[in-house]
Amino acid sequence: MDKQTMIKHLNEDLAGELSAIIQYITYAAKATGPYRPQLAQFFLEEVADEQLHAQFLANKIVALGG
User: Fold this and answer.
1) Per residue in 6-58, pLDDT tens?
2) Which residues contact 27 (CB under 8 A, 6 or more apart)?
3) Exposed / middle / buried, residue 29 (Cβ in 10 Å: 0-12, 13-18, 19+)
4) In the chain, how many domains are there?
5) In sequence order, what are the residues at sequence separation of 6 or more whose Cβ sits closer than 8 angstroms to the Cβ of residue 10?
6) What is the pTM of this model?
7) CATH code, domain carrying 8
């Protein structure tokens, strides 16, 4: 696989991670019911993991010249 193809695939993965961040924030905001606090906390904790994944991918993309 050439470098440009690798960058393309990494960018696609990065887009997925950023999308997941938005989804988890939305899920946290829309959680309802008696377990809302726990659900919101769970989803917001997932955001931090997705941010780490996104930063990792972004660093790799930049390192490859993307």
Assistant:
1) 999 999 999 999 999 999 999 999 999 999 999 999 999 999 999 999 999 99
2) 39, 43
3) exposed
4) 1
5) 57, 60, 61, 64, 66
6) 0.88
7) 1.20.1260.10
